[in-house]
Amino acid sequence: MSMTSFLHSLKLSFPFLHGSTSLSFLSKPNSSLFHQPLKTPTFLPPIRAMKSMQGKVVCATNDKTVSVEVVRLAPHPKYKRRVRKKKKFQAHDPGNQFQVGDLVQLEKSRPISKTKTFIAVPLPSKNGKQEKEGTRVLGIPLESKQPQEQQA
Question: Could you list the pLDDT tens digit for every one of the 152 residues in the chain?
């Protein structure tokens, strides 16, 4: 009796004898019995490595470009005291609306040029309201603004 006829006489019903199972399924025998694909959640929030930074405009001479200096606090490598670290970024300013000294927020975007990958956005005010020119702080009118009484 030859070896192949002997194997056919046993009639083993293992799927890997016929080549129907992939080898990756057999690579880990302990986990193959409990192999279930991990379900990923349907909604994943976008991962943003660098959200946004705030800085001060230090140069606005170029057309549609501002240079923004961002200051951050980092621990000193030896003394562990927090030290100010400054870095300048080039940001896109499409309307040439920012002047030197303005506080802006830098939003990450696609590369606009070799050095510009940020867009300068005006900072929202901290108190949530825009102050208008000529508003009264205390609500009391000034003497010059009061109606003058006519004396007879």
Answer: 566 666 566 655 555 555 555 555 555 555 555 555 555 555 545 555 666 899 999 999 999 999 999 999 999 999 999 999 999 999 999 999 999 999 999 999 999 999 999 999 998 777 755 555 555 466 666 666 666 666 55
- Phi, psi (degrees; rounded to nearest 5) at 28: -120, 95
